[in-house]
Amino acid sequence: MTQAVAPQETAQHGLTAHSDGDWANRVPVQTRSERPKSTDVADFAEVTGREAVWKYTPVAKLDALLNGRLDGGRLPVSVSEIAGVTAEWVSRDDARIGRAGTPEERGAAAAWSAFGEAHVVTVSSEEPVTAVVTRDALDAAPRAAHTVIEAAAHAQGLVILENAGSAQLSENVEIVVGDGAKLTVVSVQQWNDDAIHLASHYATVGRDASLTHIVVSLGGGVVRLNPSIHLDHEGANGEALGAYFADAGQHLEHQVYMDHDAPHTRSRVTYKGALQGEGAHTVWIGDVLIRNNATGTDSYEQNRNLVLTEGTRADSIPNLEIETGDIEGAGHASATGRFDDEHIFYLQSRGISAEEARRLVVRGFLFEVIARIGDAATEERLHAAVEAELADSAR
């Protein structure tokens, strides 16, 4: 009698599992939504730098934030006093914590495990208001932080997170946008050259609500800021914008996730960066997921990098996953290059020097994003910071 042979298990993409170990479970996660999630750092293995989410990051410089003991006490922070905006510290078991997202990697989980209290900023005004949250008095001690920014239903507001000075900071920022609300959140990184900053931003956007998320990274030794925007209510709109300028030896990284999980949602992603100096390194990874239930989605993402000198590196990786064919449209684009010679020639033909022509091109390139902030004082200060970067490159 012939003995029946059990069929071999088949892993993803039709590959056959070997008998020597749990091969099928070692296949890398191919879909962003399938990544393991946890608020407990113990659920994540130590980072080696070979993981998909860490392979572009100088992980050796992050050891204190990934593996060390983090101070989870209150950060020294100030918030502008504006009618219609409140700020308070709450315990980590407050019901407002954990609504916008969950860590997908060890750095964010370490910060979540360590924080003692969360800083909650609530926008309740139905007329447009602006609040500035300043963190510029930190020190070099490794810290963990948790911030919640919430816009009540039909509220309108602009919240600016100002980061400056020295720091070793790992943080999670939750953004909750109520139904019909319009919220802009801006995170500005003007840290000192020795600063290390890991940040994961999670957002959930309500029905017919709109979130504009803007990142401006100009300072810091290592900055890794990853926004995840979940359009999980019908008619939600999300825009993710970024501008960054990397100098010699500086690492600026942004991994953007736009998750369409409801019908008739819309998203736009635009990140633009400039690089100059030996060892300047930028990383942009853009993930867009259009789920099966997200019919009528309209989505587009793009990343542009302008290389100003030799010796720089810009990694740019757009990813688009579509699980339904019933959409308005979706696309992505990525480009990295030097100055457009035609633009330079045109400006020189108008009597502008080659050096000034290059400065004008870079200004226009980055200011397109900075001009979307909507606060004149912040925009003017960032314009001056970019000018200072350009002046350094001309020396």
UniProtKB/TrEMBL annotation:
Polar residues bias (residue ranges): 1-13
InterPro entries reported in the protein's UniProt record: Fe-S_cluster_assembly_SufBD (IPR055346), SUF_FeS_clus_asmbl_SufBD_core (IPR000825), SUF_FeS_clus_asmbl_SufBD_sf (IPR037284), SUF_FeS_clus_asmbl_SufD (IPR011542)
Stretches the record annotates as Disordered: 1-38
Domain of life of the source: Bacteria
Alphabetized Pfam families for the sequence: SUFBD_core
GO terms classed as biological process: iron-sulfur cluster assembly
Residue ranges of domain SUF system FeS cluster assembly SufBD core in the record: 144-365
Membership in a protein family: Belongs to the iron-sulfur cluster assembly SufBD family.
Protein name: ABC transporter permease
Organism of this sequence: Leucobacter chromiiresistens
